[in-house]
Amino acid sequence: MVHFADMTDEERFSRLEHKAAETRKMLFGALLLAKEVWKEDLFRRREGLEIMEAMEKAEESFADKSQPDRFKRIEQTMEVINRRAKSIFDLMSYISKYGRPV
Questions:
Q1: Counting beta carbons within 10 angstroms of the beta carbon of residue 30, is it exposed (0 to 12), middle (13 to 18) or buried (19 or more)?
Q2: DSSP string across 26-87
Q3: pLDDT in tens, 22-67
Q4: pTM of the shown model
Q5: Cβ-contact 45, 97 below 8 angstroms
Q6: Are 82 and 29 in contact (CB under 8 A)?
């Protein structure tokens, strides 16, 4: 196994791109799961509806894989990660405030 420090900059950047893409995909799955589990509870309050709307926007966000500039591509990927993670954090805050589903 090659250690990160022994890799070329190209290999290191490719590895970072891959990790960012995997994180983006896992957060997408977490959003889908959370939305399904908490859907009924979120529809009960205005605040919940706002969180649901933010979660749906986060689901729809994407990174343009055809972007030729690799730095812009990874920047977009990190923006998607940030948006999805924030949605999950907001949901967890909502859950801690209003309780668990029935």
A1: middle
A2: HHHHHHHHHHHHHHHHHTTSHHHHHHHHHHHHHHH----TT-S-HHHHHHHHHHHHHHHHHH
A3: 999 999 999 999 989 999 989 999 999 999 999 999 989 888 888 8
A4: 0.83
A5: no
A6: no
